[in-house]
Design a protein that fits this description.
heterotrimer, A mainly alpha (206), B alpha+beta (165), C mainly alpha (185), A: 206 residues, C: Arc Repressor Mutant, subunit A, elongated
Chain lengths: 206, 165, 185
């Protein structure tokens, strides 16, 4: 029985390796487990490319096989969670960015809210969310900030917002404050770009 | 007097022809200019991290896409002690041989590589002298995968439409 | 007399660069180096800074070559880039407290910048130019040294024709005033 299972695993690995020649670069101890993870991912409709890249990164950096496999498994799990939060229609780039956001500490709820708030591709807002949390912004603050902007900001504005927050943090601002303040400022600019008139902003005659 | 001044100012000035070489050296590291309007260029400079012999910097120059969804990004690393530098990441299958970086200056202190990238989020790092991994201190850090050395992340946005891999 | 040998035109060189032949740009650099350099040297009053601004302008010219609408007028287009670079360099030099100020009080007794040609007259000219406001100096050089028409100057500088005429006039008046003072020293 055991030999049969082993044989099956090896056959699978050979099959996947044939489909994916880059796996040849992996440590032999990592090859079969990673191949199996790739196969599961494909079967689940998840994109395999991020998994392959993660395996290649670990291999190139000389990490032990078990670390490589663990990293790939973790990413595969996060991709699945991202798909649960973002919905079946999420494209591979959104899933990858969503997985990064979850990994960084954002909640699935935040991802789902983003999906509802923005009727454009989510790759950049999710990437910005992941990067903000990686910079030290608390996940809730980061999610709230990105949510404020997600409805109306363009991708370029979101990237600029992330840069501004990182700059402020580098200059000594608290990460949460930098994110919240930055989002308010950026949202204000976005509002000015729309045609809404804010009568209260005008100085009144005495 | 005035005429004399003008005559003097109009006299030919001879600029050292060595300037030509300096210009062409810079130009040789740039992508071929393309007709049309480039998107806004985005620059980030970093101060060297204390304790590091090299400072890493990414200059994201969003040139006009060469294909509808590809942007050329220039990666720059300040590494005066380096003999070789490679750019390694998701965009070249983490193959250290694929994207060697070139010295931008004659003294070899600044290294550069230009990579065409489609929309997406990419992990990357610099490999100095074939053995030392450097992340980009100013770029967002990738989550730690336990590989021993950190990587950085760069995000390339699309044209507004969802382009899948 | 024979047929004039016509060198490769600016437009041809530009086209070759855009087609991928970056080496062709060297031809344009060699062609315009001295001509543009003259403006930069007089505008910035300092050979080193002029070369820096010039190099900067050439590299920027290469980068945005695709935006040159009339390749046959590459020189004029590059001029605009250089004028801009000189403005930035000038502002930077002022912040750094270098020689090039137009504040009279500060200039009286200020030493002249080290120069390539050291005749007394040339020093006087440089000193006089330095005392002009940057926008007057710029307009003066473009009109009297580079021989540009006001419409061309307007395109390069972004200022209106009447504003430019006023600046050139003021520059002339001030230069004459400065030089008259110098004669009495």
């Amino acid at each position: 029985m055991r030999i049969a299972a082993l044989f099956a695993a090896l056959t699978l690995a050979t099959r996947v390796a044939a489909q994916e020649p880059r796996l040849e670069r992996l440590d032999s101890a990592a090859r079969a487990p990673v191949a199996a993870l790739l196969d599961s991912a494909r079967a689940a409709g998840l994109p395999p490319e991020p998994l392959i890249q993660r395996a290649l990164e670990g291999t190139t950096k000389g990490a032990p096989a078990d670390r490589v496999v663990a990293a790939v498994r973790r990413l595969a799990t996060d991709l699945g969670r991202a798909r649960d939060a973002l919905g079946q229609s999420a494209d591979p780039l959104e899933l990858e960015a969503g997985a990064a956001a979850l990994r960084a500490g954002a909640s699935p709820g935040a991802l789902a809210q983003l999906r509802r708030a923005r009727h454009q591709p989510l790759m950049v807002p999710l990437a910005v969310l992941a990067d903000l949390v990686a910079s030290g912004v608390p996940p809730d603050s980061a999610a709230a900030a990105v949510l404020v902007l997600a409805g109306s900001a363009r991708d370029a504005d979101l990237v600029e917002f992330r840069r501004a927050v990182e700059r402020d943090i580098a200059l000594g601002a608290s990460p949460a404050g930098a994110a919240t303040g930055g989002a308010r400022a950026a949202a204000g600019v976005t509002d000015l770009n729309s045609t809404a008139r804010t009568g209260s902003a005008r100085p009144r005659r005495p | 007097m005035f005429d004399r001044i003008v005559a003097h100012l109009r006299a030919p000035v001879r600029i050292d022809p060595a300037l030509d070489e300096r210009v062409m050296a810079e130009v040789s590291t740039l992508p071929t200019p393309t007709s049309g309007r480039p998107a806004a260029a985005v620059w980030r400079w970093l101060a060297p991290l204390a304790g590091l012999a090299a400072a890493a910097t990414v200059l994201a120059v969003m040139a006009r896409p060469t294909t509808p969804s590809t942007h050329k990004l220039q990666f720059v690393l300040v590494a005066p002690q380096a003999a070789t530098v490679s750019l390694v990441g998701d965009f070249n299958d983490w193959d250290a041989a694929r994207t060697p970086m070139h010295p931008l200056r004659a003294d070899g202190s600044v290294w550069s590589a230009v990579v065409p990238l489609g929309p997406g989020r990419y992990h990357y790092a610099f490999l100095v002298n074939g053995s030392r991994w450097l992340a980009d201190p100013a770029a967002p850090t990738a989550s730690d995968d336990g590989f021993g050395t950190p990587s950085s992340v760069v995000t390339v946005s699309g044209s507004g439409r969802g382009e899948g891999t | 007399m024979g047929i004039d040998r016509v060198a490769t035109s600016d437009a041809d060189l530009v086209r070759r660069v855009l087609a991928g032949d970056s080496g062709a740009y060297a031809g344009l650099v060699a062609r315009y180096r001295d001509r543009l350099g003259r403006y930069a040297v007089h505008m910035l009053g300092n050979r080193e800074e002029a070369e820096e601004a010039l190099q900067d302008a050439f590299v920027r010219g290469y980068r945005s070559l695709g935006r040159c609408d009339s390749p046959e007028r590459f020189g004029a287009w590059l001029y605009g880039i250089l004028v801009n670079r000189c403005r930035t360099a000038g502002a930077r030099a002022t912040r750094r407290g270098r020689m090039f100020v137009h504040d009279d009080a500060a200039l009286n007794g200020a030493s002249l910048p080290t120069a390539i040609e050291r005749t007394e007259f040339e020093d006087v000219v440089r000193w006089a130019l330095a005392r002009l406001r940057p926008e007057y100096r710029e307009a003066f050089l473009l009109k009297f040294v580079e021989d540009l028409e006001y419409e061309e100057m307007a395109r390069l500088t972004g200022a209106g024709v009447s504003a430019l005429k006023m600046r050139v006039k003021r520059a002339r008046e001030q230069l004459q005033l400065i030089l008259r003072e110098a004669e009495h020293v």
